[in-house]
Amino acid sequence: MTDSSRQLAEQLQQRFGESLQAIVDSVGEVTVEMVPDSLLEVATALRDEPDFSFEILIDVCGVDYANYGRDEWVTEESTTSGFSRGVEAATAGRLTAVTEDLVVEKPRQSKRFAAVYQLLSISNNRRLRLKVFAPDDDLPVVPSVIAVWNSADWYEREAFDLYGILFDGHPDLRRLLTDYGFVGHPFRKDFPLSGNVEVIYDAEKKRVVYQPVSIEPRVLVPKVIRSGTVDAVDLTQLAEETEAAETGEEAQ
What we know:
This protein has 4 helices and 9 strands. By secondary structure, it is α/β, with parallel strands linked by helices. Strand 8 (197-202) and strand 9 form a beta hairpin.
């Protein structure tokens, strides 16, 4: 938290009040969370009012909070907040040997998909982050901000392509990065790492064709070894044996 970020957070709270669901001032960065219905009104005010003057939309990105707040591995040092350090036990290709120490699943983020807007004010030398959660996980829809910042055009198309977030009011919402006929949205947490199809050149047909993925799904997540377990390695003994072996080699 800095004086500048604290001042911005106070201005936002005073100006928009109940239109904002949350204001977070952390490490000198201010993040504002709001409902989709308030997005266009707040965004217009942030752009036009001199106290804010956020003339530039730097980026719009999607976020999938499907595994947020879920920690599988019980460790003494790693954080239990944020995204999971592993993957779900039901994931295809999960090795059975690494599922023994899974903990009970914790409640996850209440809403899954969010659009995040990065704003810059040249006039006031400030930055601001807006976050809007889509109300429906099955059909995530948020308003398009092209009418406020026209630079949102390709940014929103990218978020739609990679996360499947629909931007209501976008004049040309179509895929931007994936191929024609691509199925699914590759940045979603439930999208298979190996994909759904693979592309090869068919010598007989003399063209590129799609076919089912031939790679066997396999998820490699290291097992955490903790002291006190039956199969835990005695690191002190291992270090002594290694040192003795090295000493013996030097003597020879």
